[in-house]
Amino acid sequence: MLEELARHDVSTAICCQLLSTARHAGSNNLGGPALQDRWLPAVADGRAIVSIGITEPDAGSAVQVMRTALTEDGPGRWRLNGYKNFSTLGHAASGVLVWCRWPGGDGAKGIGAVIVPMDREGVSLAGKHRSMGIHAATESEIAFERGGRERGRHPLGR
Question: What is the helix (H) or strand (E) element at residue 11, kind and residue range?
Answer without folding.
Answer: helix 10-17
